[in-house]
Amino acid sequence: MIAIIDYDAGNIKSVEKAVLALGEVPVVTRDREKILSADKVILPGVGSFGDAMEKIRSYNLEEVIHEVVEKRTPFLGICLGLQLLFEESEECVGVKGLGVLKGKIMRIPDKEGLKIPHIGWNSLKFPNEGKLFIGLKEESYVYFVHSYYLKAEEPEIVTATTEYSTLIHASVEKDNVFACQFHPEKSSEVGLTILKNFINLDREGK
Description:
With 206 residues, the protein is an alpha/beta fold. The protein has helices spanning 12-21, 32-37, 49-58, 62-70, 80-84, 188-199, and strands at 2-5, 27-29, 40-43, 75-78, 88-89, 103-107, 118-123, 141-146, 148-152, 158-163, 167-174, 177-180. It has a single domain, classed as Rossmann fold (3-Layer(aba) Sandwich). The longest helix has 12 residues, at 188-199.
């Protein structure tokens, strides 16, 4: 069973539809037992870092997420879901993230000719081998919508990057934790391949 964590963040419906398109039946839930018994867990999200962390804490989901990670259940953060896995964000100074991974979320720097938020298709480079990208070629295009980007502390966990005003860490993998700044559920066949690769992982993310 694939659990999609419901904490009132945007984008849950499109992630659910993409998983259904792959022949799986996801459960959208904030129920602790359902999340902990799932084979895979997805944390989607669009919106503010601070609001999201407040909701995660108000629904008592922070501890559950850490338990899922410690159980080595494959876990996928998407867009804001990636950002929340890290320690802090320039968007909401003083608000602590989940701290599952080390790094900081920073505002995309202003650059002449580029609009922020960054909305649109960008190609990926693969600095390290990633399980989510099996069967995909470097320079594959995916869809982004964001004003803040990840600067991961551990370069070895970065499996995809893109350039938009600066070097953006677009995807990371560490043990059973996976995350994408872009939206695989809105990235056509490339995105469905990424989601399928996640779904096909074993119980420990291998």
